[in-house]
Amino acid sequence: MRSLNEILELYYDSLLFDKGLSKLTLESYGNDLRRYFDFLEQKGINSPDDIKPEHLREFITVLRDTGLMISSVIRNLSSIKNFHKFVVNEDISSNNPSLHIDTPKEPHTYPAVMTVDEIERLFSIPDPDTDLGKRDRAMLEIMYACGLRISELLTLEYNSVIFPEGIVRVIGKRDKERVVPIGTSALNSLKKYLAEVRPGLASKGKTKSVLFLNSRGNKMSRMGFWKIVRKYVQLANLSIDIHPHTFRHSFATHLLEGGADLRSVQEMLGHADITTTQIYTHIDREHLKQVYRQYHPRG
Q1: Catalytic residue among 55, 192, 219, 245
Q2: Does the annotation mark 287 as catalytic?
Q3: Is residue 271 annotated as part of the catalytic site, yes or no?
Q4: Is residue 245 flagged as an active site residue?
Q5: 180 and 85 in a common domain
Q6: Tell me: the pLDDT tens digits for 82-96?
Q7: Residue among 134, 135, 248, 254 flagged as catalytic
Q8: What pLDDT, on the 0 to 100 scale, is given for residue 64?
Q9: Is the pTM higher than 0.70?
Q10: For residue 103, is it within any domain?
Q11: Residue 289: pLDDT band by 50, 70, 90 thresholds?
Q12: Are 151 and 238 in the same domain?
């Protein structure tokens, strides 16, 4: 019977030549498996035939006890399971101790949500006396007012906003169109941008149909908008981790906190499945619990 280290070399060759994995991925597999083999060696085990499920369960406990994040424990276990699958498939051993080992579940984390006060602080930062300040304020406002994905915001066209009706035509995933209402504040910021800023930006570039333009008059990139968000978050001195998608999370959460029904929020977000929207009911419950703990005399 080959030793574990000899089998590992065969496994590397398989990953490199059969699977075509990168050296970086191979290195990651190697680090995970060496840690596993070191543990087995301490137990006096050097053959895949001798590894039992209880050894693997103990190893997972050791990983957790060392303070490894649950995502790293899951990755380690995935590397080990793939290795044992290879050992069985190559007829090196019929023993697969990982077969009935359940993968630990990551604790469910909910997306960050801004408070209404934080939204107001953020929107007050762009300089209303500069062209780019007016553009940035309009972009932030419409992102939050309509719960847009960043890709939806950056592909809005010049005629996407129907001012008399107060609605925005949005092209979402799989080119599916939806209509979303837009509030007065966002409409006013957008009118200023269209009247005072966009004509000058458009004259610099060749892009005519896209609503929001960069300083060169062309369509803005995702990274370009992310830099804008990051700049204003830092200037507003907001403590939570805010990224472009946070506006969408905040939009949905604030609607539900205000009493909106789930189906309406689903429609406005453009979710194909209502279960995707239901995460925001969990966020809302967390908000209620926080309020309860803060204000109830015996909370």
Answers
A1: 245
A2: no
A3: yes
A4: yes
A5: no
A6: 999 999 999 999 999
A7: 248
A8: 86
A9: no
A10: no
A11: low
A12: yes
